[in-house]
């Protein structure tokens, strides 16, 4: 973020008097007074400032004095010569210079906009950065100005040459495009039509543009910015806003809405329910990723109310016809370039493809196979009596083996013929009417070879028109079979996790070669086809192997077989009866066919039981605040052999890749439902869960009534409520810290918080102190479960490190971490700077909710905002001291254990020391959070004393290794679960 010398001119223009512009802007007055351009500067100082003339196009004197009446009063008293004089000398950091720039919003929108970074790069404030650098980088200083929109409105050819859109708009764009919309938040065309008197005033030159009028007129409550925001409606339904406007704290209702109301999801008008619109996780994700400023901006851009009706869905027959057409279109290209499977090294995989005619389709499948996997493959094409191009396919495909038969021998016999020629350790039976999706072959091969107990692997098969054919398959007791989740969307949570299944379709079935050959391949009693893969998978399982479904193995199956419907039905009926006779003993162990049992029947192995895990939101590790601990619990349950389904109270906004990477691949993550859907979910999954783990007491309160209604469908005698942290302890500490009166006695408040624990067979506390409180409250079923950590002491030593670190999540304005940061940066950090020097830096790392205002931190010259990082190890290795100035909290701070486990000694509050059961001066240094000087002294002591630093670091690492080993943690969770299943 360094200043380029090329931008020095802009720096001079915004902070100085522009004589040429001034003379052009106020020509009427200056000509009347016979003032020449050379005399403009003197005139401005003698008369122009008093007339509220602007000194340059980047500062609006009239607007500034109107917006800040206290400044206007000081100007009138002669304390400041003008608003511009005040801005340059006193208002740079907390006043806005123009109606189209917001200093606070600009800094908040860009994480790199810290005071330390601005000063280091030579900028005076955010406006200086914006005009010299940010404008050219297409940043924006106001939600009312979108640079991309402005450039699109520029005359043809000019947009691509403009390097500073905002500056250009102020210099000429406002008057050139007076009634054109520059951002979704202000509809200039609608405004001009709705208020024709304003348009007339713009034509007369009284206003630069419709936007200028809206932001600067003297009666702001009288005008709406567009058809989807109503001042009268908003102020009528939000009397608190109207009161603030009448007190002069807000310009109008829209100012409140853009600052706060949109984030609180208040309705902007009677016809738009913003809260309902924001329930869509895709919209939430867009806002979180910065693709939209907020939900209202997203709606204004998307305008779903104006979209045409969706076209009718493509039918399966249409999709198949299109596939056949595309195969024909591709064929000349494939014939011209050829497909090459030649390899010098031994193949990792052999692929068997049966083809009876269908040359175009077979070539398309071979091309998909080659594109999907670059490694060595043995490809065996069985020509089953073809009369088209398949009869000479080796002329177009190099490196394949072709087995030719005079007649159509069918899938079963063809596969067995190919199996006898297989040379690789794994064999893939692959249909010739498929399109393999990215990574399918490599993922299946890795899954098959990762564990010797895996005998075969199948994948997520998508039908021609975009719905699931199967996500693994089920065998019922009557011998019938069912593709799990058939006709569902391919991205449903139920199809998104690895599990052992009864069988996978022969469309794509990868098997260990030695296993397939030992069993003689497919049983030819099923020839020519149907039930052969079901039979083979059950025989593989009878040998002690698993059949795994892996959702990362994905392909589209076009189901363009050669059998007619009548003969197919006849074969299915015959082979179904054969299958039932052959596997009677095994079938008797399968469940009766019943739709509500699909979620249980989808698993071929019994496992240790199916656990439903309920949390506020999906517990992603970077969220902190207890979510990391929940993630550890889920991981441990899966490692213990439990099937786990994670259900969030609030629907997630993260993308599916982030969600899947956050959990073990055998965990089912419900990412498309939330609390209002829980009742229906429990009904759909009735009798499927063996235990329920509820994270956080307040979630037990949220779902108590739902569980009462669903009591016959859930394991009511196997429910864990994990308190995670007792909110009463945190709230009382907060009140004590701020000298507030408690609304109720501690015991009464705690009793109210613990009331929902009636649900629990087992209650879990995060530390011994809170466990004692639970026992004192009458609970005799309490277990203690803290954190799991792996010590990492390989980082650099004391000499190679510098500076001070805080790492933790901030979810809202009341978060203990935000309080810690505010107190430390305001009270402690200045003392550290005075003692350790002006170059000392305070690094702040971790997830921050976009709605949380970190403005004071960003403006501190010694604070480095590091943001959320994927790998925290390099961060921990860079800093010398970790600070945890927590002044109120409950449970145990995960950040304390994580920092210690990463070899970074901690200075923290006595509260954290007590929660962790650590000793001051041994595993950490404790510091008084009511005495900033004392806290600073402890930080300085640890920062400068290498011997103390080494001692504290080593002691904390030993404590972590002793008390928080993952194996012991998993064992404690196992004991909690065993207590649920133990007889009373």
Automatic annotation (TrEMBL):
Record's SUPFAM superfamilies?
Nucleotide-diphospho-sugar transferases (SSF53448), UDP-Glycosyltransferase/glycogen phosphorylase (SSF53756)
Q: Which Gene3D superfamilies match?
A: Glycogen Phosphorylase B, Spore Coat Polysaccharide Biosynthesis Protein SpsA, Chain A
Pfam families linked: Glyco_trans_1_4, Glycos_transf_2
Which GO molecular function terms does the record list? transferase activity
Keywords in UniProt for this one? Transferase
Q: Which residues form the Glycosyltransferase 2-like domain?
A: 350-469
Instruction: Note the coiled coil stretches, chain numbering.
Output: none
Q: Which InterPro entries match?
A: Glyco_trans_2-like (IPR001173), Nucleotide-diphossugar_trans (IPR029044)
Name the UniProt record assigns to this protein: Glycosyltransferase
High-level lineage: Bacteria, Pseudomonadati, Pseudomonadota, Alphaproteobacteria, Acetobacterales
